[in-house]
User: Which sequence fits this backbone?
């Protein structure tokens, strides 16, 4: 009989501790954990933006007699709520890749080392925007740009 009394008492203590942990965790979660803003909460007029990285990482041979390799990943910011432009971007991935391969592949390693990365970005950006009809890209980013 004594064993069941001690077991019963231990279970009651565990139940009380569990209740205290649940109440404390709930209070902490409600009052102290920051919540991310939803689209309805953003009042400053800025649209939700995403990074378009669908072009992927490319390995491009240079125009040298013994070709070198340039590894490049190009991405940019776009508005995913503009469905027509988002669809155009998805349909133009192959064209983006061809533009990059043609442009980078037309230079030698020496030429690429001389060119500033910003010059290459601006030239690729102008070629991308010349092809696009439903929107414009503002800025290109290189997450990888290695000349080997």
Assistant:
């Amino acid at each position: 009989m004594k064993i069941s009394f001690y077991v019963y008492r231990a279970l009651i203590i565990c139940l009380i501790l569990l209740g205290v942990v649940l109440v404390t965790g709930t209070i902490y979660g409600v009052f102290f954990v920051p919540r991310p803003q939803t689209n309805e909460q953003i009042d400053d007029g800025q649209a939700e933006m995403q990074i378009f990285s669908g072009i992927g990482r490319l390995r491009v041979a240079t125009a040298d007699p013994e070709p070198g390799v340039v590894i490049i990943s190009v991405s940019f910011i776009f508005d995913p709520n503009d469905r027509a432009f988002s669809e155009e971007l998805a349909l133009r991935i192959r064209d983006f890749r061809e533009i990059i391969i043609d442009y980078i592949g037309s230079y030698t390693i020496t030429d690429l080392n001389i060119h500033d990365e910003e010059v290459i970005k601006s030239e690729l950006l102008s070629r991308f925007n010349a092809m696009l009809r439903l929107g414009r890209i503002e800025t290109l980013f290189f997450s990888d740009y290695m000349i080997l």
